[in-house]
Amino acid sequence: MNRKRRVRIGDLVSMHTHHTGLVGIAVDREPVAISTTPAQIGIRWLGGSGNIDWEPEGWLEVISEGG
Fold this sequence. Notes:
Layout: E1 12-15, E2 24-30, E3 40-45, E4 52-56, E5 60-64
């Protein structure tokens, strides 16, 4: 079975739903625990504004697992 892996802090991610070509680092998660509320992931996009953008976890794809 090929289950999608949850995004963890420190992972490099891209948005598989939007072809932006951007790569970012996951820096935060709300809610922190697994819940019925869809998770929002705080992303610092490389080459971006330096701000943290909040994206739905379902939009993200882990391209490299963090340390």
